[in-house]
Amino acid sequence: MNKIKIAFIALYFLPVAGCFKPYQERASVSLIFDTDIGPDYDDVGAITLLHAFADSNKVKILATVASSKYQHVAAVINVFNTYFHRPDIPIGVPKGNAVTDKDFQHWTDTIIARYPHSIKSNEETPDAVTVYRKVLASQPDHTVTIVTVGFLTNLANLLASPPDVVSKLTGTDLVKRKVKLLVCMAGRFPQGREYNVHRDAPASKKVFAAWPTDILLSGFEIGQKIKTGLPLIRNESISNSPVKDVFRISIPMAAEDKEGRMSWDQTAIFVAVKGVSPYFEIVPGRMVMHEDGSNSWDSTGKNHFYLVQKMPVGEMTNIINELMMHQPKK
Fold first, then answer.
1. Per the omega criterion (within 30 degrees of 0), is the bond before 15 cis?
2. Is pLDDT of 18 > 80?
3. Which helix (H) or strand (E) element contains residue 32?
4. Strands (E), 263-324
5. N or C: which end of the chain has fewer CB within 10 A?
6. Are 182 and 214 in contact (CB under 8 A)?
7. Would you say 27 and 59 are in contact if contact means Cβ atoms under 8 Å apart?
8. Above 60 in pLDDT, residue 9?
9. What's the pTM value of the predicted model, to 2 decimals?
């Protein structure tokens, strides 16, 4: 995700002390990961955190779906799932209209050429909504956490999906029955304009207006301050790692990354698994979408919550850096 740095954000808000019960750490989280992995690469850090948590039995990864559909996105996801010894995790790619941003840094080409993967093209994968419906229908009620760190395309399509052979429920009813929490890296708070949201603004508007469960939002301003990746690429004990290769290739290509890449997507995975406190506080209300793809915040609304940094940024950065150096279990 190329988080475009625009819009000044007012810093006045009233954080909520502590956290609500749904956002406390749980013994294990059943999770669907929805990503626009490539061209930006904080998604790579996020999928690494996801597998690190799975290796410590904190997460059951139900599916890894793409919200963009550039040519090799399915293969890229499969590279990381294979590297972490989970090559059979279901992968879906949107088959209709979707963002097709290209990887200008060409790290995707490098890891596809260098590392094993069984899925070679998007055509080998089902539609992302099909994966969502199959996975959700198979899970106990109110147990699934969805983490989206890309565009809201799949979630809008899921809500609009009709009953089928998988489930007699509409997409909205299936979400209402099966999903516990949606965690999004999306928006800027309390107001602003953020790439994931405005890049497919119609989908974003539909999801934030109609999604039937609570939504926890990690905004642009959270990940912007948490810069990671340098300890990973300097760690000489890590070799033959697609995660290290991506950060090694990409960090030198942008002056803004000289202190590390901003870590938007990692924070979404982190709070979905570890909970909010003591790392963050939350502000309740409701995200309001505008015609230009920007957002504001309705503090009188309900069911939406955005993160406010509580733990010092340096400490949070160290935690994420450590998780990003996780190596596959032997």
1. no
2. no
3. strand 29-35
4. 280-289, 294-298, 304-309
5. C
6. yes
7. no
8. no
9. 0.93
Q: How far is it, in rounded angstroms, from Cα 10 to Cα 142? A: 35
Q: Could you identify the residue written with the tokens 């006045």?
A: 12
Q: Which residues lie across from 227 on neighbouring strands?
A: 262
Please work out, in degrees rounded to the nearest 5, the angle formed at the alpha carbon of residue 258 by the alpha carbons of 244 and 241: 0
pLDDT bucket at 19, cuts 50 / 70 / 90: very low
**Closest Cα partner for 304 from 169, 229, 234, 211?**
211
Tokens of 203: 């989908």
* DSSP class of 321: H
3-class SS of residue 147: strand
Angle between helices 128-138 and 171-178 (to 10 degrees): 40
Which residues make Cβ contacts (< 8 Å) with residue 234, sequence separation at least 6? none
Q: Coil, strand or helix: which one is 56?
A: coil
Diameter over CA atoms, the chain = 53
Q: Which residues pair with 285 in a beta bridge?
A: 304
16: three-class secondary structure by DSSP: strand
**Is residue 254 classed as helix, strand or coil in its secondary structure?**
coil
Fill in the amino acid letter for 272.
Answer: A
Residue type at 297 in one-letter notation: W
Pairwise CA distance, residues 201 & 153, whole Å: 9
Q: Do 60 and 30 form a contact (C-beta atoms < 8 A)?
A: yes
14 in helix, strand or coil? coil
> Treating both helix axes as pointing N-terminal to C-terminal, what angle do 264-274 and 42-55 enclose, rounded to 10 degrees?
20
| DSSP H or E run through 53 | helix 42-55
Quote the Cα angle for 245-237-49, to 5°: 55
Residue 243 φ then ψ, to 5°: -65, -50
DSSP β-ladder status, 294-298 and 280-289:
antiparallel
CB 154 within 8 A of CB 67: yes
How many C-beta atoms surround the C-beta of residue 131 within 10 A?
Answer: 24
Give the bridge partners for 77, in sequence order. none
- Assign 20 a pLDDT band (cuts: 50, 70, 90): very low
- Rounded CA-CA distance 139/169 in Å is 14
pLDDT tens, residue by residue, 56-75: 999 999 999 999 999 899 99
